[in-house]
Amino acid sequence: MKGRLYLILIFLFLIIIVINIPIFAHKVNIFTYVEGNKVYTESYFNDGKNCVSSKIEIFDNQGNKWLEGLTDKEGNFSFEIPQEEGDLKIVLTASMGHRAECIIRADELRNTTGLVQENLEEPISSKETTEKDKISPTEIIGGIGYIFGIFGIIAYFLSRKK
Q1: Other CB atoms closer than 10 Å to residue 13's CB: what's the count?
Q2: d(C-alpha 12, C-alpha 154), whole Å
Q3: What is the model's pLDDT at position 151?
Q4: For residues 108 and 5, what is the distance between their CA atoms, to the nearest angstrom?
Q5: Helix/strand/coil (H, E, C) string of the chain?
Q6: Residue extents of the structural domains in the chain
Q7: Do the strands 76-80 and 88-93 form a parallel or antiparallel pair, or are they unpaired?
């Protein structure tokens, strides 16, 4: 009976871990701006790491690929504004299938005071991540410790009944 209880607790613990795997995933962000006759992009993951050698594709308003390139070691990419009129769609494909995209409207390409409309798979956060926003290894180990502690308390009370 006691062995069966431990198997159930282990099974429940494994289910909890498997269900919460998406918590460890991180998203990718792209920040785009126009300055002069160039478009600049800055790409980074949610934890602040740069998207190094990530694929950037630029599409015109008809969906035709206009340009393709890779980000540098700081996650930056830039290109000259095309002569054609219309919006530009910039698609970033980072490692492990992470993807983000943004649209630069035609009026911003001709007038650098406009804003960039960003369409992401997930909401974007600001680039300035503070220490408070980052999850440290200490917090992860502490969370796992809490889980083991709860299971220890449950096991203690179950063993006291017998």
Answers
A1: 14
A2: 13
A3: 87
A4: 64
A5: CHHHHHHHHHHHHHHHHHHCHHHHCCCEEEEEEEECCEEEEEEEECCCCECCCCEEEEECCCCCEEEEEECCCCCEEEEECCCCCCCEEEEEECHHHCEEEEEECHHHHHCCCCCCEEECCCCCCCCCCCCCCCCCHHHHHHHHHHHHHHHHHHHHHHHHCC
A6: 28-119, 131-162
A7: unpaired
Nearest by Cα to 32 from 95, 77, 94, 81: 77
pLDDT digits (tens, 9 = 90+) for 94-130: 877 788 889 988 888 776 444 444 544 544 444 444 4
What is the rounded CA–CA span in Å between residue 76 and residue 52?
A: 8
| pLDDT score at 70 | 93
pLDDT digits (tens, 9 = 90+) for 8-29: 878 877 777 766 555 555 688 8
Q: Mean pLDDT across the chain, nearest whole number?
A: 78
- Which listed CATH number (2.40.30.10, 2.40.10.10, 2.60.40.10, 3.30.1050.10) goes with 28-119? 2.60.40.10
**161 or 97, which is more confident:** 97
> How large is the average pLDDT for residues 79-108?
87
